[in-house]
# Entry
Amino acid sequence: MNSIQSVESISFKSPDERRSEGKALREVVPREDHGQWKPPKNRRDSVDILNEANEDRISDLVPIRFGRMMQSPFAFYRGSAAVMAADLATMKSPGIRVQACGDAHLMNFGVFATPERRIVFDINDFDETLPGPWEWDLKRLVASIVLAGRHIGLSEKSTGRAVEATARSYRERVANYATMRALDVWYDAIDIDRFIAETEAKRKQVEKRVEKAQEKSTPEFLFPKFVKQVGELPHIIDEPPLIFHPTAEQMPGLQSGYQIAWDRYRDSLNDHVRTLYDRYQFCDMAFKVVGVGSVGTFCLLALFMSNEDDPIFLQVKEASASVLERYVGASTYGNHGQRVVNGQRLMQSASDLFLGWGLGENGRDFYVRQLRDTKTSIIIEDFDAADLRSYGRICGWTLASAHARSGDAAVIAGYMGASDIFDDAMRDFAVAYADQAQRDHRAFVKAVRRGRIKAVTDA
# Structure
């Protein structure tokens, strides 16, 4: 007979008790201290950090990455998560950990379709995800808001208000999640109606953007854009240096259609998704240069067909060690693609149906997701002060939701408190670190002009 273990000794800490634990951590790191950024005397050279991060990247693409980062301090910031991770590691932390995004700047949030075809707003980039200090994500977000505000010519007063709104939204939403049942936190999602209500956006404009993204995600749009017929076979169109086919040296397994790597990816999928995946046959794959931070890593576009008029495009992205790893410890996963996928599933309210991971025959870890699938992000050049403020609020809410799924919202809420002390600290930090990013950008541009590093534009 199986015995049932007694549960009489089980005890639970109430939300109030956990909030008190968080409040006590203010003695370890006062909330005001988060606003104090001053580069340490032994601060590492930012260009050295970036060069170090490029060691395993495709050398011919690194100049394109640097060319994109040269364009503005905001663009530089997007590509320099490794620099900020090194800086954040020098600051005191209260020690509350969550599944961190690792690169939570405002351009890594956006709208996409769930497997149930709902339209939601969420974080959409997890290349650097790893368990780490909760405040690191928030600091990366608020500094990006200041840099975005400066990029579009807003006043310092306006950008400061946008940061305060972002931090307040995060703080209040975390406090709300601390009162919710655990399952309700996991079920919570920011759908298109909640997005419009929070940002005060015009419904017709948002729906038009989503409709346009849906159109660009359809096979009817993607297939003629990326594919041509070569004899009887569909073939991805080369557009060097941004789209090109890999060599056998770059991607071993070319002759077999990368069968070993695809089999490993298939093994990572749930059984019901494997049934769907097996309806498709691999046809072609090519490098596709994307984003800023990802340029130089193995990012590929793969074409599968289940019929002559039924294609699907999958995006294959290399997954290497997170920029956080040096400072918070190594991942528990042996495959960095698995690290990214599981971190994404933990932080997002819904994830891509085809999300999975594998190991290439070149020894590089990778993860896979659908190309686009109604994904759309903001165009900050169209923003005014009110737009930046409202968008900051929705990003703050989204980050709070992601952290509440993996961390203890009550402890975080207890630490931040109900006043605006923490909001003010985030504003002060965001301004000071945006100044740092601008100094680093100037040093970066100087390094390019002096020939220390090479940068080219791909316009």
